[in-house]
Amino acid sequence: MRPVSPLRLFVDAHVFDGKFQGTRPFIQGIYTRLATMPELELYLGAVDVENLKKYFPNDSGRVHYVPYRSHRAASRLLYEIPRIIRRHGIHWAHFQYICPPIKNCRHVVTTHDILFKDFPQDFPFMYRVVKGFLFRVSARRSDLVTTVSRYSKHALEKHFHLPPEKVRVIPSGVIDPFFRPYDRDAVRKSVADRFGMRKYILYVSRIEPRKNHALLLKAFLDLELYRKGHSLVLLGHKDIAAPEFDGYIAQMPEEARPFVIQRSGIADADMQDIFRAAELFVYPSRAEGFGLPPLEAAAARVPVLCSNATAMSDYTFFGDASIDPSNYDQFRNKLAEMLEHPADAAELNRIAEAVRERYSWPGTARKFYEILTQ
Predict the structure, then answer these.
(1) Which of 82, 107, 346, 350 is the most exposed place for a label (fewest CB within 10 A)?
(2) What pLDDT score does 207 carry?
(3) Which of 42, 48, 39, 45 is nearest to 5 (CA)?
């Protein structure tokens, strides 16, 4: 039976307490939309509720900020969340990857990917063991599992033996500011003045083996793009040891070093301009449960060279700029070609509109709400 209106929905939003994680825009994209619905009372849990208010303003009067006492996952999952659910009479509780062992309302878990099952060589042994156990138990105990791509849905059904009807695809979306018009020349001047980045190829992703930074750096060095004045900007922190990439960094020519820029901790407000000012956005990852950055770049009408592996095979609107990341020669040649002959404005607008049509947060939020209330 459908619960009485309004639906009281609790969201574990602890990812807004620490360093940036990819699940942040997913939660923000859905719940800034659902917070406006009169049929919903939204409860958001985190230690730093003042920070939550920056992302989820209570304009509707139906958003409630629930403070956790501890940053520790065990305390949050074992004690605090079950008490919060009971105290507020929650109907549904939404978690990312892992849910509490105590179940006193309906649980929905969003498992963005289980790439360590298909690509075990790219993940540490203990990571695979611990995450594999926790993700599997949480998915099987939940009433509903959502994920962000057809690839991840099939992986969950295969590896966790979940029935197809239990796993629903709720894709991530691109936030509206990426689609807004802007003056490219003015943005490029601003980024050059603020960050010293000029005429650059951009890759935004944390550094780990499957992200394939080594492929991009190797092609950049082999083509000697630094001698043509191009820089390579890599934004993201190191998450897992990437020895092949580290090897290229250690051995690259001295004259290339000033043209390879590694940064992390860029503010969200600055990140959009860094996307817009890029000559070319490259996403050579071997494995993704979704892969949001190339969609953000495309929404900003920046040329994109993107892998077609795993979930990214859905991005057919990139045409022949969608490439096999295991084919180095194809990748290198396409990189050189796109820098020499960039796509025209009409083509970039076409791709941006395709992204808007397929990956919008209002559509994703509406689909998620309909699933909960069926």
Answers:
(1) 346
(2) 93
(3) 39
